[in-house]
Amino acid sequence: MRMRRRVSQTFSIIIIPAICFAVTFYFGYAGIFGERGLNAWNETRTELVIANHELDVIRAKREALQHRISLLDDKAIDPDLLEEVARAVLLETRQGEVAVPRPKP
After folding, report:
1. What is the DSSP secondary structure assignment for residue 74, as one 8-state letter?
2. What's the whole-number mean pLDDT along residues 64-88?
3. How many Å apart are CA 51 and CA 63, to the nearest integer?
4. Do 11 and 18 meet the contact criterion of CB atoms below 8 Å apart?
5. Distance between CA atoms of 17 and 24, rounded to whole angstroms?
6. What is d(CA 26, CA 20) in angstroms, rounded to the nearest whole number?
């Protein structure tokens, strides 16, 4: 009887703190290295900064294209843009100019 009680006391003295330590370690590890931990949060922030930069570049290109489209309006075509497009398409040059065709991207 005494032996059983002693084993049970020793067991409770050792097991309960061990279980608490294991649970604390599990949640601490998951909080730092887990799928939604601090490391994943930092990686997500970095990806967000890169994506925002790419979005800014794409918006700038879109605004430039919209500006060129607005210059090609049916009512009033911009003469400089018309000349630029005609030269690119026809490879026409003025006296003393040389046209070098470029491959299309």
Report:
1. S
2. 80
3. 18
4. no
5. 10
6. 10
Contact 39, 32 (CB under 8 A): yes
Residue whose C-alpha is closest to residue 68's, from 82, 58, 57, 54? 82
Domain residue ranges in the chain: 1-33, 40-94
What is the band of 92 on the pLDDT scale with cuts at 50, 70, 90? low
Round to whole Å and give the CA distance between 46 and 51: 9
Q: Taking the CA of residue 92 as centre, how many other CA atoms within 13 Å lie in the half-sphere pointing to its CB?
A: 9
3 state SS for 37-73: CHHHHHHHHHHHHHHHHHHHHHHHHHHHHHHHHHHCC
CB-based contact 89:99 (threshold 8 Å): no
Work out the average pLDDT over 11-33: 90
- ∠ CA 42-55-61, rounded to 5°: 155
- Cα separation, 72 vs 79, whole angstroms: 9
